[in-house]
Amino acid sequence: MIYNFHPLGSDIFLYIVILVTGYLLYRLRTKYIFISACNDLKSNRLAIVSFMMLMTFFGIGLLDSLHFKVENSKNIEAPQYSQNIVSLLDIILYPVGSEYEKTYSSPLSIYSKVKEIFESESGEFLYSYQRLEHSGNHIVHEKHIAWDVISSILWACLKGLLLTIVFLTIYIFYRTFRYNMTFTSVFNKIYSDNDSSLIRYVFLIGLILTCIILCIKDLSSLYHICGTDKVGQDVFYQTIKSVRTGFLIGVLTLSIMLPIAVILGIMSGFFFWSSRRYHSIYIYNY
């Protein structure tokens, strides 16, 4: 399949907001107020955790704002496109969201929540909970779910640890060439120096977030980790897709209210000082 970039109107609006915000941050990088706020952020661990969670939220919304049309045919002269427009997040999470069950199911379950009449392999008609089509197809019995989930979590945590070590190694090499230091001295400085506690904390939070994201990614490709709704759609997929909606609502509300708030603030400051000046002149003359 060939993916062709196809931005929506809301995507273009988000791109403009991101570019404007990036330009403003670039202009403010040398201002004392901005530098002071960054220093306050560095000294507050709770603020660092909140900032990294916010950036994760922002990253999910941005990945879901990069939309593509799927080209089904290989004919270059007259390409045929699918009616469905997918985002980069859909491509990363595939097959989550593209597989549907019949009705309700519990989280991490391999059986439906509603009893149905179906024909078994032996030809008998049974009235029971039917096996789900797209959840836990690699296991035979329900009792194997616990061990399969634990092994998937451990494997995802191992991948998260290796990924964090790779990023830490890249950062150490960057510090090595930037400040003309040895690899061992940079590592010891990060490991034991009090001034590098922020770096250690950032990498620790990054490790936790990476492990959580990889665990969710691996489990969601095997099971419906939050179950399915009435029409059989994955609840976790709907939850992830709602991040972009919340992000759009927040940005749109801020874009509308911020100019109004700035104008009212300027007007209130102007009229306040004008009234004080008028009263001081009036009292001085009389």
Could you characterize what this model shows?
There is one protein chain. With 286 residues, this protein is mainly α. The chain has a domain at 100-233. The protein contains eight helices and five strands. The strands form two sheets. The protein has a three-stranded antiparallel sheet with strand order 1-2-3. Strands 4-5 form a two-stranded antiparallel ribbon. The protein is extended. The model has no long low-confidence stretch (mean pLDDT 82).
Characterize this entry briefly.
With 286 residues, the chain is mainly α. It contains 8 helices and 5 strands.
Helix share of residues? 55-70%
- Which strand order spans the largest sheet, edge to edge or round the barrel? 1-2-3
The total beta strand count reads: 5
- N-to-C series of helices and strands: EHHHEEHEEHHHH
Name the overall outline. Answer: extended
Instruction: Note poorly predicted spans.
Output: none
Biggest sheet descriptor: 3 strands, antiparallel
Q: What proportion of the residues form beta strands (DSSP E)?
A: 5-15%
Mean pLDDT: 82
How would you classify the quaternary structure? single chain
Instruction: Quickly give the structural class.
Output: mainly alpha
